[in-house]
Each structure stands twice: as structure tokens, then as C-alpha cells.
Amino acid sequence: MKPGQRVLGSxxxxxxxxxxxxxxLDLPGVTWDEPEYFASVERIQAWTATLIKDPGTALxxxxxxxxxxxxxVRYYNPHPPVYKQGMAAxxxxxxxxxxxxxxxxLFTALxxxxxxxxxxxxxxxxxxxxxxxxxxxxxxxxxxxxGHAHIAATDIPLTCFWALSTLAFASYLRRGRTSAILLAALxxxxxxxxxxxxxxxxxxxxxxxxxxxxxxxWLVTILLALVLAYVMVPSAWYDPAGAVTRLFxxxxxxxxxxxxxxxxxxxxxxYAVPWQQSIVMTLITLPLGVLCLSLFGCTDLVxxxxxxRPKDDRTAxxxxxxxxxxxxxxxxxxxxxPNHDGVRLFLPMFPFVAVLxxxxxxxxxxxxxxxxxxxxAALGCLLLxxxxxxxxxxxxxxxxxxxxxxxxxxxxxxxxxARAGMEVTxxxxxxxxxxxxxxxxxxxxxATVLGWPSVKYFQELQDLGLLRKDLRFTTDLSSSYLLLLAxxxxxxxxxxxxxxxxxxxxxxxxxxxxxxxxYALTExxxxxxx
Length: 530
Hints:
Largest sheet: 5 strands, mixed
Strand content: 5-15%
Shape: globular
Helix content: 55-70%
Order of helices and strands: HHHHHHHHHHHHHEEHHHHHHHHEHEEHEE
Number of domains: 2
Low-confidence stretches: none
Strand order of the largest sheet: 4-3-5-7-6
């Protein structure tokens, strides 16, 4: 592609992603972690206002600690603040137009649009328009990834920074442009300032530097990134070593502090799951067409044995993508790795799957060009590309807005996953505003409601104005009503009995599978609660 076409094509797909996201940012329910992030953003906004009016007061170490890293909420919100800084900016600028929840979430949507543009731009440089659009569309059409692009959390910003740093660093090693290494350092610094996972990024970057036989750019990138991370994390200004130590200790000790359970193939695991779980989840949560294209994108490396020494930029990009996929699948296979929440914890892997998908579509176009003229090859590529990607588009629309409950045909969709004993929902995104409005219409004033699995979550919804404040949420089994999220790994026998045996008054369903429900406990047999 010509430079101008490359820019326009990348921008077009980025705008498409944003146009699809912004109108529906309010559709998924507020997820488990978001209320804590919203509260943190409000503290950051208040501190920023104080900084403008009274810098001396704001820059006091105690004031910084209270605004940026209060100890009483670290259990719920232990992450560095870069993603919250972005949320604070979008909520301040657009919250009055979009509404508070969508205002926070807009930052995530912008990061996803940037990610789509970066992936499209990168593939365009080695595989032309066919590969570029294949990669960008593949990323947009991954329901789980697209679903996370609606949510104000760490995951999509980290994914964007991870991909941007990796691709810019690889570009510098092959072309030597100073702007590329500065961009790699910038993105790495933002990743370090977003989530503990970002501190793992230097590992695959180091492997890539060794493969390219140029290690010193890696050292420069790390040093510049550390400086930026220090500037972006105010809670580290007075004690940088202590801040990093706390982050590592809390993240590496999650088995003790946050031992979230996971249901996998019908069995509940307290923390660690079987090593192959991330591989299985990847195979059953990517659209089948995208998965096939990505596997086809690896064929050049296998056929030419160029994985050891790429013959050109295209095979080098394929090798880089395979390295990233292998890194995350290997990381998630370690016994100490948390594996809860579907594919969320290894989300930065998926842009590289999209890259491989684009390379796969390009390879198909090459094969057609070898047998037909350019017009016939283009038409054939369009037809085959549609065959692979249109079903993914249709599935994306069908699962909307329950994107995080998507499973593909290999397991029989969501009903097949439910029968196989997989988690059908996990992050409260099924508690949509539409469902909550129906709940409010159903419940009488002052009703006592057993909220499961988290009473605190429903109380936070009340604080956000998303549920009536007269409702009393409790853990008492003698409550009149039960409002339940079908995260089966968290359901004790009484709740599981109700979920499996009792007809809800109201329910959120996808393909006949209940994701959330409101039950009248006064009409429930006592044996169902025992």
C-alpha cells in the first residue's frame, strides 16, 4: 500500500471500531471491578483540581497517598493508575454528554480503536490492503475482545500498550528509526503504569532482541520506560522501590489474597487450573473463521522453516506474533498463574492472533494470484474472506451485549459450553441496565434482596444511581428475593439449587442459557435452599 492509503485504511478501521463501540457503551452491565475504578477516578480528579489551586497541599506525600493509592481499597484496586488517568480525562470531557458510566468507558473504546489502527497499519506494511483489512477486521470481530472494549478496566489499555510497544520495538530492530524506539519506550512505560502484567513485557522483548542479535536497544527501551512509569505513578514519587515491591508482592501472592475460583469442564478449581486451560479457552472463544485464518497465517514459517531465520519482514512479523502467542499460553500454563475470568488475563495475546489472521488472508490472496488474474484473485479473496469473517460478524451481533459469554462452534456455542461445564458468565456484564430497570419495576418498595455473589456490588450500583436505594441487599437466606449472577464457580449448593431448579421471575438469557436472574424466595421450597 502507498503511505497515504496505509494511513487512510488504518484510520478507517479505527473509526469503524469506535463507531461500533460508542453507541453501545452503556449496554453491558457495570462489571465487578468498575465501581472501585470509578471511585478512584473521582479521587484523582479531586486531587488534580487541588493541584491546580494549591500545588503545595496536593504534592504532600499523605495527600498523594490518599488520592492515588489509599491502603483501605488496595484489595479491590491494586493496579497502577495510568488507565484511570485516561478514564478521568474522558469522563471529565465527555461524561456530561455520554453519561457517567459511558464517560469512563470511552477511554477503553479509544484505546481499542487505537489498537485496531496499529494492527492494521503494521500488517499493511508487509501484506498490503488484503492483509491489513483482514487483521483489523479479525480483531474487531473477536467477541470477547470487543466485549472488553466496552468496559472501563485495565485490560484493553494494557493490551493496546503491549501491542504498540512490541510492534514498535520490532520495527526499530529491523529499520533503526529513532521514533520507533521512543514509541516502544512510551508504550512500555504506560504498560508498566497500568497493570502488573505490563512488567512481564520486557521478557518477550528481550527474547526478540536476542533473536535479532541486538540487545542494547532493549536496555534503552527499559530505562526510558521506567522513567516514564515513575512520572506517571504519583504514589511512587516518594518511595519508588516500595511501590514496585508492593505491586510484585500483591500480584505474585494472589493465591492468598484473591483466590478466585474457576469452573472448567465441570470441575471447580480454587485457583490454579489445568495447564491446557488457556489453550482450550483460546480454541473455543475465537470465531472459527478467525482461528482458521490465524493458523493459515503460520504456514509460511512452517513451509520455509523460516521461523529460525525469517526471510523478509512478513515472516518476521509472523514469527513475532507466534512468539507472543506462545509466551502467553506458556505463562498461563504455569502453576502460579491465575486463570479466572475467561480469557481476560491473557487478552494482550489476541492482537497477535489478529495479525496472523491478516497474514493468512494475504497468503490466500497470493495462492489465488498464482492461478488467476488479479481481478479474479481479488474476487476470490473477497469471497473466501467473507466465508471466514461474515459468520464472526453475525455471531458478534447475536451475542450483543453479552460478548463475554461467547463460545464458538467447536464447543457448540454457549449452550454447548454450559453442558460441558464451562463458565457462562463471570463479570456482572449480564446485569445490564435494561435488566436492572425490569428488576426495579418488579420489586416492591423496601424489598429485602439476597444479592449473589456480592452484596457489595449491588450496593455500589445503588451509589451509582443504577438501582433504587430503598432496596435492602443482604446475605440472609430468609430474604424475600434473590438477585443472582450465574457465575457457577461461586455458587454454593443453595444458590446452585435455585439456579438449576427454580423458575426465575425475570432472567437474562442468551441462546436459552440463563446468565442472571431474579427469584422470589418466598415462593421457593425450603429444600431448594438447603
